Amino acid sequence: MSTAPLLTVAGISKSFRGLRAVDQASLTVPQGGIVSLIGPNGAGKTTCFNMIAGVFRPDEGSISFAGKNIGGLRPDQICHAGIGRTFQIVKPFKDLTALENVIVGALRTERSTRAAKKKAEGVLDQLGMLDKRDQPAGQLTLPERKRLEVARALATDPKLLLLDEVMAGLRPTETDQMVTVFRELNRKQGLTILLIEHVMRAVMALSQHVVVLHHGQVIADGAPEQVVRDPSVLECYLGEEADI
Amino acid sequence: MIARLIEGVPRRALILLGLLLVALLAAPLLVGDYGLSVLILVLYFAYTGQAWNVMMGFAGQLSLGHSLYVGLAAYTAAALYVHFGIGPWLGVWIAIVISMAAGLVIGFLAFRFGIGGVYFALLTIAFAEFTRVGFDHFTWVNGSGGFFLPVAQYSVNDALNLRGSPTMFYYILLAITALAFVFCRWLLTGRIGYYWLAIREEPEAAQTLGINVFRYKMIAVAISAGMTALSGVFFAFYYNNLFPEQIFSMNRSIELILGPIIGGVGSLFGPILGAFVLTALAEVLNDVMVALGYELPGIKLVFYGLCLLAVVMYLPNGIWPPLRKWLGLGERL
Fold it and tell me: pLDDT tens, B85-123?
């Protein structure tokens, strides 16, 4: 694993009507690395993702990817730059079959629909969903939709994959399957991954590096074992619990 | 390319389409003058519905102002013919360009400024409406008094100038409708089709997959408007008279979209089936009522209403999708 950062987020902020959702957050994702972004609900994780993915333009700060400044680009331009993402609330193309969903992604790099179909089949196979290929996406179960979401993003051939809570709602065995899939992608294809995750089982198993966000600010940043013992991290999680 | 058109289409679907085409080709020999005029109307609605379907059914953009494109094109081709002697086969291209331009202006205003859904539909109505008012005062084409083309001699078929018998019009329209069907199939099975469907289903996810949503919506509007222009030109040369009150009216826009809605929005054959059901059955019903001795002038509208009601309640995807499934004809037809 080389250590040159693929993604560098430097001091980005975003406010919504005076609420500072993300406040001067910085993080780096090394080439070939797996980094997790964790934090309590409402910490600003998804907002952070949305800024990287081009949904929101950061109020301040800069985002650079593979040496290029990508702050303020549109989501489709971000995709072409080489960043794929999934949505926390899955957004399948419901009336299309699973295969057709993935073909849409594969068309980013493939010139013909036939080549895209072939590639999409490969990606579905990789995620163990080839048997669902002809099912309309609207009829898939939630875990299947989450996997479809990943397949669709993968089909665009990203260098960096942003995963927004793809493990939420999965059973532990399903989580382990997903972890295996991402590990293999990371190891075999050198895919770099930045994930938002609440399922600590997955976070601990996957990430080499963890960034903790609380009230929009990065409060801890380091190796997983180190971060979970950090007093400020424990306080923000347990403090939340104590309030209830 | 041809391989892509028929890939995944069951053989019996091709056979049925072939039989339908043969039946339509032979129809003028079998039906009388009146039957032919009904069939022309059916094809007119089938084709125009197909054009509208590109925008709504494929790309998910609801237009309730398609009469704008019909009207602009009809007036363009008619005015070129009457004032400058430019024939319809040349005029139609100019008409297509003008209709496309109008579509692109509306599309640009809406999509650039994030106007979607119902508000987009309202915008399309507004444009059709003020164009209607504008043409009421457009003296070059005789304003609200109506614009007339020299009436055709039924005995001489002058296909170059679209002057002639209904049979000639019927075959021209049949060719256009068949080509439009193939063209839409081609669009739908290509990159653009996948992109449109993705935009229709989930625009945000589509954009994340690298699709320039604005551009592909604009292309949908341009193609739909351009296709609709052709029916406008046909309308002008077939009916020989144009009134802003009629051709730009909202009723026309609604009439155009009833076929695809009843047949099945987003399907390829839905608009054709819908046009048959609505127009042909309405005429048959009318005839039956007359034969039984009941003269009920409004019966057609009641029939439209009942059809729409039944479809909305029992077949929200239209008549065609369940029928297609029952006949085992695959998904994308």
Answer: 998 999 999 999 999 999 999 999 999 998 888 999 999
Q: Chain B closest CA to A97's CA: distance in Å?
A: 10
Q: Nearest residue of B to residue A79 by CA position?
A: B210
- B201 touching A (Cβ < 8 Å): yes
List of domains in chain B? 2-327 (1.10.3470)
Question: Over the Cα atoms of chain B, what is R_g?
Answer: 20
**Chain B residue nearest residue A87, CA to CA:** B205
Model confidence over B241-281: pLDDT tens digits? 999 999 999 999 999 999 999 999 999 999 999 999 988 88
Instruction: Select the residue of A75, A96, A105 nearest B201 (Cβ to Cβ).
Output: A96
Domain ranges of chain A: 5-82+159-243, 93-157
- How far B227 CA lies from chain A's nearest CA (Å)? 25
With a CB cutoff of 8 Å and minimum separation 6, the contacts of B108 are: B218
H or E element at residue B200? helix B191-201
More confident residue, A242 or B254: B254
Q: How far is the C-alpha of B204 from the C-alpha of B199, rounded, in Å?
A: 8
CB contact under 8 A, A113 and B191: yes
The architecture that CATH gives domain A5-82+159-243 is: 3-Layer(aba) Sandwich (3.40)
Give residue B249's identity as a one-letter amino acid code.
S
b/e B31-58 (16+ beta carbons within 10 angstroms → b): eeeeebbbbbbbbbbbbbbbbbbbbbbb
* A53 with B190: Cβ contact below 8 A: no
Instruction: Name the minimum distance, in Å, from the CA of A223 to any CA of chain B.
Output: 30
Burial of A225 (0-12, 13-18, 19+ CB in 10 A): exposed
Nearest to A191 by CA among A83, A92, A69, A72: A83
Residues in chain B, pLDDT under 50: none
Sign of CA dihedral B261, B267, B271, B276: negative
Helix (H, G, I), strand (E, B) or coil at A21: strand
**CA of B202, closest CA in chain A: separation in Å?**
6
Complex ipTM, two decimals?
0.91
Q: A211 phi and psi, to 5 degrees?
A: -115, 130
Which residue in the set B198, B202, B210 is minimally distant from A156, CB to CB? B210
Among residues A187, A163, A168, the alpha carbon closest in space to that of A36 is found at: A163
State the amino acid at position B116 in one-letter form.
G
Six-digit token string for B197: 């469907």
For the stretch A192-204, pLDDT in tens is 999 999 888 889 9
Interface check A87 vs B, CB under 8 A = yes
Closest CA to B87 of B76, B98, B97: B76
